[in-house]
Design a protein that fits this description.
Elements: E1 8-12, E2 15-22, H1 25-28, H2 32-45, E3 55-59, E4 64-67, H3 76-82, E5 84-85
Parallel strand pairs: 2-3
Antiparallel strand pairs: 1-2, 3-4, 4-5
């Protein structure tokens, strides 16, 4: 099993329930979609980290998205449809 370095993991009683990945479009030209792809890599490389996962977040400077990791490699259309936008108010 490979190791992954998640940006943020919310643990409840030691169980990883929420995983967050953050990207900077300004610094790396990668947006929240790259964060989702990284979460999908975690599923392939270290599936145990997502076994108890309730949801994931993918964030850049403009958007905060949340949803679950799909059980297959998703294309951009599936990612857009599957990850909801966090709306204020």
């Amino acid at each position: 099993m490979k190791q992954c370095r998640e940006d943020t993991v919310l643990l409840v009683n030691g169980i990883p329930l929420v995983i967050g990945e953050y990207k900077s479009y300004i610094a790396s030209s990668k947006d929240w979609r790259e964060a989702v792809l990284q979460l999908h890599r975690y599923q392939r490389q270290a599936p145990l980290i997502l076994a108890s996962n309730v949801f994931c977040v993918a964030v850049d400077e403009d958007e905060f998205r949340y949803g679950t990791v799909l059980f297959h490699d998703a294309n951009n259309e599936e990612i857009e449809r599957h990850m909801d936008v966090w709306a204020d108010g």
